[in-house]
Specification:
This protein is an alpha/beta fold. The chain has 7 helices and 7 strands, in the order βββαβααααβααββ. It has a 5-stranded parallel sheet. Strands 1-2 form a two-stranded antiparallel ribbon. The longest helix is centred in the N-terminal third of the chain and has 18 residues.
Length: 190
């Protein structure tokens, strides 16, 4: 179990296999809290935070392959062969192989559509063997409503064994079955 602690009065124990919804009042606050959560969780598990962003969250100056391995390669020592095997395994589950996969791995993110970028941040979380999943509301809505079944299956496999924190505006839909994290007011120093 890990504890998420943020400066704006947020403190929440995170249990593996459980989902949490961090309540935000507006879009700008959502991005700020996403960044703060990513920073906090990265201190707990360097290179093992699966950041699932609706806009993609990929570095535009790095090829897809480099985007997939950078977090885990930088923070943890895994061989390129291990990383490549995980990449090939998960992309195969998503229906990508052979020449199509080679072209995708060599592509720059700017040339990819939004759907493909959303899939790739999921692939990156899988390659990283993420210990935490952090999703924004846009990505979470996509995985639950519009994502291909293969993506939903990969996500479900990851989310069953690690904490999932979704950052969203307002309260989650009742059907989401996510525990709300509501910021507590800051108390003054006595």
């Amino acid at each position: 179990m890990a504890v998420l602690k943020l400066a704006d009065g947020i403190e929440q124990a995170l249990e593996p296999g459980q989902g949490y919804w961090l309540v935000c009042g507006h879009e700008q606050q959502m991005q700020q809290r996403f960044d703060a959560c990513a920073e906090w969780l990265n201190q707990i598990a360097p290179g093992a935070v699966g950041a699932l962003e609706g806009a993609g969250g990929l570095l535009s100056n790095l090829r897809v392959w480099e985007n997939m391995i950078l977090p885990v390669w930088y923070h943890r020592s895994q061989s390129m062969a291990q990383l490549e095997a995980r990449f090939v395994e998960v992309t195969g589950r998503l229906g990508l192989a052979g020449e199509a996969l080679a072209r995708l791995a060599a592509a720059l993110p700017a040339g990819l559509d939004r759907e493909r970028k959303r899939q790739l941040v999921l692939v990156r979380a899988y390659v990283q063997e993420a210990q935490f999943l952090l999703a924004d509301q846009d990505w979470y809505d996509w995985i639950n409503h519009a994502a291909p079944t293969a993506c939903k299956d990969v996500f479900a496999g990851l989310a069953e064994s690690v904490p999932l924190v979704v950052i969203g505006v307002g309260a989650p839909a009742l059907s989401a079955q996510l525990q709300e994290i509501i910021p507590m007011p800051q108390s003054g120093a006595h």
